[in-house]
């Protein structure tokens, strides 16, 4: 009987075959999402057409106000978290609702209001390019994702399904260029710690990929020193090899010993060496003067280091320190490391959320979902809370060319991603 049913379904077409895996309630949620779509698209047009580059504080707050009203209408309690004035960031929008029920997970939903496109860059407004593609500043990174999250919650609310759920929606105002200092994310981290699961709506790599892991980022600075002398004496015991050869030795050994490790990358982005060296770390600039007949006494190198786990970061740093320590004759070298964003490792808890996304997607008839390659994603706000709760990212809209003019969003996949998000939130909160 079962066999015959499966066979019949296969012939009936994939959507019919899978749609029956949805409960009556879930079918209602899907129908509500579809009915609301024109309104969700209007909201997306409205927020994309307001410039909200991170440093355009007025624009970021304006976009925040629009989402704030939407969450007020949903019955969420909304607050605006101001940043200290000297940080020069707009602040964050927080929308919360608390349920009494003990069933289901407490959710922390992540979005951001800012984009990489500042006011002094040419403005591109929301434009339809063809039947499945739109462009506009931040349409995919990540105003589309913000609307995916909101539209999913609206569909649940309209079916009375948010009752007794505990949900925090957190929209940061400076994801693309975070404010400096702990205050920038202190409240964000504190609110996440009150939740069980974080879902981040950064852009999706299509319908079939989510992110259970993101790499962390950090920086390093290498300084090498040699004995300044006439070039004719180089390599002689009393003169030595000079700072430039010492820097070259170290960088080449970094490449030989560390470049083939999975998920680990490091890049020397700036190098200055010579007789007189000025290196300005704050502005990422350097100046050097030197002559070919003088052995260089000093070299500065600045680089980054990306990794998946803290262990990988620490192991890489230990190897780099060891390489630095074995100096050429009459030279010396030192390396310092600075922490950036932590990594988000692919934990079993994160994988469970990916499995849920996969199940929901199959039940909707949209096909399988898998965890994508962590090496393809940079660090994000979700990385800051990954050590405290299970996390999944890449649940937002899909498209191409984030962070570049002409970024696009796929409007055909957009309603499907809202449906997937709505059912994931529904199942997680039962
Ligand atoms: Zn983003």
TrEMBL record:
Protein name in the entry: Peptidase M20
Keywords: Hydrolase, Metal-binding, Signal
PANTHER family hit by this protein: ACETYLORNITHINE DEACETYLASE (PTHR43808), ARGE_DAPE-RELATED DEACYLASE (PTHR43808:SF32)
The Peptidase M20 dimerisation domain, residue ranges: 212-330
Pfam families xrefs: M20_dimer, Peptidase_M20
Cited SUPFAM superfamilies: Bacterial exopeptidase dimerisation domain, Zn-dependent exopeptidases
Signal peptide residues on this chain, from the entry's feature table: 1-19
InterPro entries recorded: Bact_exopeptidase_dim_dom, Peptidase_M20, Peptidase_M20_dimer, Peptidase_M20A
């Amino acid at each position: 009987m079962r066999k015959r049913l499966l066979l019949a379904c296969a012939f009936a077409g994939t959507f019919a075959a899978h749609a029956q895996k949805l409960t009556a309630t879930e079918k209602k949620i899907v129908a509500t999402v579809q009915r609301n779509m024109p309104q969700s698209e209007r909201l997306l047009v409205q927020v994309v057409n307001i410039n909200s580059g991170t440093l355009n504080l007025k624009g970021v707050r304006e976009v925040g106000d629009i989402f704030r009203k939407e969450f007020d209408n949903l019955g969420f309690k909304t607050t605006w978290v101001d940043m200290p004035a000297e940080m020069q960031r707009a602040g964050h929008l927080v929308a919360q609702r608390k349920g009494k029920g003990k069933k289901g997970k407490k959710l922390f939903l992540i979005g951001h209001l800012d984009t990489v496109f500042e006011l002094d860059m040419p403005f591109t407004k929301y434009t339809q390019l063809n039947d499945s593609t739109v462009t506009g500043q931040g349409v995919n990174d990540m105003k589309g994702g913000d609307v995916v999250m909101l539209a999913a919650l609206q569909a649940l609310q309209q079916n009375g399904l948010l009752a007794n759920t505990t949900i925090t929606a957190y929209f940061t105002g400076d994801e693309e260029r975070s404010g400096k200092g702990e205050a920038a994310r202190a409240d964000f981290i504190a609110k996440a710690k009150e939740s069980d699961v974080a879902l981040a709506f950064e852009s999706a790599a299509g319908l079939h990929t989510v992110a259970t892991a993101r790499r962390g980022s950090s920086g390093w600075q290498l300084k090498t020193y040699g004995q300044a002398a006439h070039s004719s004496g180089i390599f002689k015991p009393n003169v030595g090899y000079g700072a430039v050869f010492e820097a070259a030795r170290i960088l080449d050994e970094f490449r030989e010993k560390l470049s083939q490790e999975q998920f680990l990358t490091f890049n020397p982005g700036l190098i200055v060496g010579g007789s007189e060296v000025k290196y300005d770390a704050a502005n990422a600039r350097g100046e050097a003067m030197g002559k070919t007949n003088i052995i260089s006494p000093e070299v500065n190198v600045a680089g980054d280091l990306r990794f998946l786990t803290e262990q990988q970061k620490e192991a890489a740093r230990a190897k780099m320190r060891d390489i630095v320590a074995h100096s050429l004759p009459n030279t010396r070298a030192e390396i310092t490391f600075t922490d950036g964003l932590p990594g988000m490792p692919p934990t079993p808890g994160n994988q469970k959320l990916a499995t849920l996304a996969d199940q929901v997607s199959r039940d909707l008839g949209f096909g399988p979902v898998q965890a994508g390659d962590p090496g393809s994603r940079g660090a994000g706000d979700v990385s800051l809370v990954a050590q405290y709760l299970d996390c999944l990212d890449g649940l937002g809209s899909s498209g191409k060319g984030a962070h570049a003019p002409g970024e696009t969003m796929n409007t055909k996949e957009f309603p499907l991603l809202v449906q997937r998000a709505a059912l994931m939130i529904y199942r997680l909160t039962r």
